[in-house]
Design brief:
alpha/beta; ten-stranded mixed beta sheet; three-stranded mixed beta sheet; 12 helices; 37% helix; 17% strand
Length: 439
């Protein structure tokens, strides 16, 4: 009859087996309320997921736009007063130049100052929400991580920017810092291009990097007994030379009793550098075109003895061309430091009681690391070269030196790798002097 009430019945089954409603709800883990809601969907012919109850509703702890704006404005003002703006973004990062806050700052300490600075009656954001807003909206404002061995010039210019009395002075300091960083990045790109060239053409070009590592103190145990800390341990020096074309890195080891001077004296001088470099080049096959990179230490690498030695090698016919390049002071991290880091990590986790065990440790630290115990002779190269070669005036202002058989006895010097201003200097006191490899 018209208007009569209809009642729908449902049958329940699992894998074709008919069951009761109670068992059906137990099998599928649904309650009576949800089951009724699903039945109504089936009756209407529209089966869609039910929306969550909070859809379209603002959370109870949501902050207003004005409150969040005050937080962002406070962080920006705090960074403008205490931060050190960088001239450019780091490589491979976002395009926005970062601003670094002092490493003594923490997110919580900045939030505490924000909370204290808020006026009475204003809504104050909690510490966790403060951090989330900071990271989401102002990712370029970061807290500087504590570091050692940073560039002194960078730190000086940053402090000048921070303490500048006028905007013009701050802008000039920022410009100087930007120029310095761009120069360091340019030299770094040149260093990488030299390595790639040596890898691409290993038969015609060889690239090496050399430097001293931190001394080893043995015996050393991973679980060091307390009284040993107060003992004077045996020092072992490490001079590393890496051939980036694939030959690996050689760690030249000599202890404090094997140095040129007594009690580890003159362990890192120019005679030491040249003697080990000569030993390496004599024992390691390499191309006639040699390019070397090292840091800017005048007492070890950047001096008249090293330049005279490279000039002598070309004059003696050992190489056709040698280029010596120095990294920018404070930005000297290079591939040889990577080998040192691998060895140092292995050393700290191992027990080492003797030089022989140290050799085994270095050989086992990586397939590119190889140790060489003291088997060479120290020579007074500076006395020999002083009689035949001149001293280079203003050597510290140049970063790139080239010796070639086409300009025997001379050196070409440049301040940057891309500079077109090349200074050519006659190094030999007697240009008619002839050298041989046996001299």
């Amino acid at each position: 009859a018209a208007g009569a009430r209809t009642r729908t019945s449902f049958a329940y089954s699992v894998q074709g087996v008919r069951i009761c409603r109670t068992v059906f709800c137990s099998v599928y883990g649904v309650g009576r309320t949800r089951l009724k809601r699903l039945q109504k969907m089936v009756e209407s012919g529209v089966c869609v997921p039910a929306p969550h109850g909070n859809v379209g509703k603002a959370p109870w702890n949501k902050y207003s736009v004005e409150t969040r704006g005050r937080v962002i404005e406070f962080i920006k003002n705090y960074a403008s007063v205490h931060g050190l703006p960088m001239p450019a973004a780091p490589r491979g990062r976002a395009q926005t130049a970062p601003t670094y806050l002092p490493s003594s700052c923490t997110h919580q300490s900045v939030w505490a100052q924000y909370s204290n600075a808020s006026q009475q009656g204003e809504e104050v954001v909690g510490c966790k929400s403060f951090q989330r807003l900071w990271k989401k909206q102002l990712a370029n404002i970061q807290i500087m991580s504590p570091r050692i061995d940073v560039c002194a010039k960078c730190e000086t210019l940053r402090n000048v920017m921070k303490n500048a009395d006028s905007e013009d002075f701050k802008i000039q300091s920022a410009s100087d810092l930007k120029s310095h960083v761009e120069l360091a990045q340019s030299e770094r790109e040149f260093y990488r291009s030299c390595i790639e060239m040596a890898k691409t053409n290993p038969d015609t070009s060889t690239h090496i990097t050399f430097d001293f590592a931190e001394n080893f103190a043995i015996p050393y145990h991973a679980r060091q007994p307390g009284p040993v800390y107060f003992k004077v341990l045996h020092r072992v020096n490490n001079f590393g030379i890496v051939n980036e074309a694939g030959a690996g890195q050689v760690h030249h080891l000599y202890h404090e009793g094997q140095t040129i001077g007594a009690d580890n004296g003159k362990a890192h001088g120019p005679n030491c550098v040249v003697s080990i470099l000569h030993r390496y080049l004599e024992k390691t096959p390499h191309a006639k075109s040699l390019h070397a990179h090292c840091d800017n230490c005048c007492g070890q690498n950047k001096n008249k003895t090293v330049l005279a030695y490279l000039c002598w090698r070309v004059l003696a016919g050992l190489e056709d061309e040698i280029m010596l390049s120095f990294m920018i002071v404070g930005h000297t991290r290079c591939s040889v430091d990577g080998g040192f880091g691998v060895v140092k990590k292995k050393f700290r986790a191992s027990d080492t009681d003797s030089a022989a065990q140290l050799v085994d440790l270095i050989d086992g630290s990586g397939h590119r690391n190889k140790a060489a115990l003291f088997d060479w002779h120290w020579r007074c190269w500076d006395d020999f070269f002083q009689a035949h070669f001149k001293k280079v005036q203003g050597i510290t202002s140049y970063q790139h030196f080239r010796f070639s058989k086409d300009i025997p006895g001379k050196v070409e010097m440049k301040k940057t790798h891309s500079s077109e201003d090349i200074v050519t200097l006659q190094l030999m006191k007697d240009p008619s002097k002839v050298f041989s490899a046996s001299d």
